[in-house]
Write a structure and sequence with these properties.
Layout (H helix, E strand, L loop, with lengths): L2 H10 L4 H4 L5 E7 L2 E6 L1 E8 L2 E5 L7 H9 L6 E5 L23 E5 L1 H11 L1 H13 L23 E3 L2 E6 L2 E7 L8 E5 L4 E5 L19 H12 L5 E4 L9 H26 L6 H7 L17 H12 L15 H12 L2 H13 L3 H14 L4 H17 L3 H15 L6
Parallel strand pairs: 4-5, 5-6, 6-7, 11-12
Antiparallel strand pairs: 1-2, 2-3, 3-4, 8-9, 9-10, 10-11
Bound molecules: zinc ion (ZN).
Zinc ion binds next to loops.
Length: 423
């Protein structure tokens, strides 16, 4: 856990689930009869039955013992079945800590695409370590600093029961329905327990604007996500146990509002992005400025983790090609040559930066950062340039609301300080 993330946990302690949003940490809470929810960064739900526990998700490997400790305050039953709602490190890696000594290996249910995910993690292990270090640590150096993101290997306990579209089962007389929905990932599931009216959404609900745009990650599916939220709303759950944030207990109206508002939000962005793309296939970065993002004051749509602008980019990526639409970018010159040319025209890297600072003072950090990039690329050996660019990106990070923008800009500042002109 990075220092920044630990600070967030401390700041959220004692706040209600609604106030705390994505970073809510707490439990165990008995959310329904013999059903216990706890969260530390990500949520875990344990359904106690007469034959053992059905566990939905398992947290990160380093947080598994904390989460298991919370559940064990409530029940000492063995884990009969585990379901991983998707293969991310904060959901599928903490199971070992929940097992009782000597208990048989539980059945582990997952959507079948999870195996391809784990294979991809191995194929791109170092890349994944680096991008997660940027996203969560705000520094490229963290990739080698012993963080939990160091290695992207498959979890020790792999799923053994794979399904495609839906999977129903019963344990100790309690029925469960697992449904697949491509959303944040292509292996996402949500879990419904009809007799207890408890819905475990996985990361389809995270008490923050949906993570459907993430700049560094593989494709997300906001249109299918919206359809999945509507399917969940039709279940008329009494209690919602989300992937991140606090549970909603015995409040079906609020659950419905969360699901439907989020679906509408995603649908609106998809619709507006497709409409912008239809206007002559403009350059991708122009589409970002053409799409008017829907606004909401609902806590579950706050852009504290991901943000709307990134959703637009993710939709464009899915439907469009890799070319961003700028003619010069179809077969570009080496970027450093472009930067040196522009810096020379401006009268040097420092001249570019003084204009960047003027733009910053005028409040236009977006434009300022373009000039800052060229300045650093043209003169990475100039300590003054490095310092100024780092400071611009620190200022930009401080103004951002989403964890992703904040940390990627912090990472840009770290690269600038190191004289490495990319982030
Ligand atoms: Zn998650």
């Amino acid at each position: 856990m990075s220092n920044k993330t630990s600070e967030r946990f401390k700041a959220m302690r004692g706040k209600s689930p609604d106030e705390a949003g994505f970073f809510w940490s707490g439990g165990p809470i008995e959310v329904a009869e013999r059903t216990f929810f706890q969260s530390r960064f990500s949520g875990v739900t344990g359904f106690e039955t007469d034959e053992g526990i059905v566990l939905v998700d398992s947290g990160m490997a380093p947080l598994g013992p904390v989460l298991a400790g919370m559940l064990r305050e409530k029940t000492k039953a063995p884990i009969h079945t585990a379901i991983f709602t998707h293969g991310h490190v904060d959901h599928a890696y903490g199971l070992e800590a929940f097992l009782l000594a000597g208990q048989p290996r539980p059945r582990i249910i997952a959507q079948k695409n999870m195996l391809a995910r784990f294979a991809r993690y191995q194929l791109t292990s170092r890349f994944n370590a680096a991008i997660n270090a940027r996203q969560f640590g705000g520094s490229p150096e963290r990739a080698g600093a012993g963080e939990e993101y160091d290695s992207f290997s498959p979890p020790a306990l792999m799923p053994d029961t794979l399904y495609e579209e839906s999977f129903g089962f019963a344990v100790g007389g309690v029925s469960f329905e697992v449904q697949h929905c491509r959303a944040e990932t292509d292996d996402s599931s949500f879990v419904w327990c009809p007799s207890r009216k408890v819905l475990c959404s996985g990361d389809l609900v995270i008490n923050a604007l949906p993570n459907a745009g993430n700049p560094q990650k593989v494709q997300r599916y906001p249109w299918e996500w919206a359809a999945g939220l509507r399917r969940m709303a039709a279940l008329e759950a009494q209690t919602l146990c989300p992937g991140h944030g606090g549970p909603v207990v015995n409040d079906p109206a609020k659950i419905r509002r969360i699901l439907i508002e989020t679906a509408e939000f995603l649908e609106t962005i998809v619709e507006r992005t497709l409409a912008a793309m239809a206007q002559g296939a403009p350059p991708h970065t122009d589409i970002v400025h053409m799409v008017k993002l829907p606004q909401s004051s609902s806590p579950w749509l706050r852009p504290i983790y991901d943000e709307g602008e990134y959703l637009v980019r993710n939709i464009v990526r899915f439907y469009g090609g890799w070319w961003n639409g700028r003619p010069s970018d179809l077969k570009p010159a080496p970027r450093l040559e472009v930067a040196r040319e522009i810096a020379a025209l401006a009268g040097g890297a420092r001249a570019l930066l003084s204009r960047a600072q003027a733009l910053t003072e005028a409040g236009d950090l977006r434009l300022a950062c373009h000039l800052a990039d060229y300045a650093l690329e043209a003169q990475p050996d100039d300590a003054e340039v490095r310092r100024t660019v780092a400071s611009l990106y620190e200022q930009r990070a401080a103004k951002e609301t989403s964890l992703m923008a904040r940390n990627l800009f912090r990472s840009a500042a770290a690269y600038a300080r190191a004289g490495r002109p990319f982030a």
